[in-house]
Amino acid sequence: MANPNANMPGEPQLVVSKEDPNQLLLVARSTPSVPGTATFALTATGTVAITGTNVSMTWSPFATDTNVPSNDSKSYFTKDSAGRYLTIYNTNTDPVRQILNYRVRSADGVWGSSKQFADPAGPNDPTPADDGAGWDAYPMADEYAPGKFFVVWEHDTSAILVSTLDISDM
Q1: 122 to 1, 16, 30, 58: CA distances (angstroms)
Q2: Do the beta carbons of residue 118 and residue 153 sit within 8 Å?
Q3: Which of 20, 36, 52, 77 has the most Cβ atoms closer than 10 angstroms to its Cβ?
């Protein structure tokens, strides 16, 4: 798969496309070309062919997806049981990693607006470098009912926080 150095893709995630069960959607963090500027995720699609025990994939080049923000750290991207895409991501680039927002692409293919998910007050960063003060980063989620998620993330490099997110009416 092409790896464009200009965007330095990393921290990839993979979902089966909601449009085609034989297609994969790869979402990767991009690095901003100008520090402190907002960035968007890079996406690529892969066509899967399975013959017996052989699996082959053909990938498109990475492209910037302006519907999927990706600022400075790994975001979370998934598809729920109703076919909606959900992305949870950091909003701020300066200071970095301060607030988590989310966006949902409804089953009809329309992306909703960004909504705040987390910006909690919490413990102070106890690390000697004090490099994670105020961070909310590295979200991960699991769907426990249609459109309802448990979400976990790192807060302030000193705590793991858990909350719920309900997108069932979107």
Answers
A1: 41, 36, 28, 45
A2: yes
A3: 77
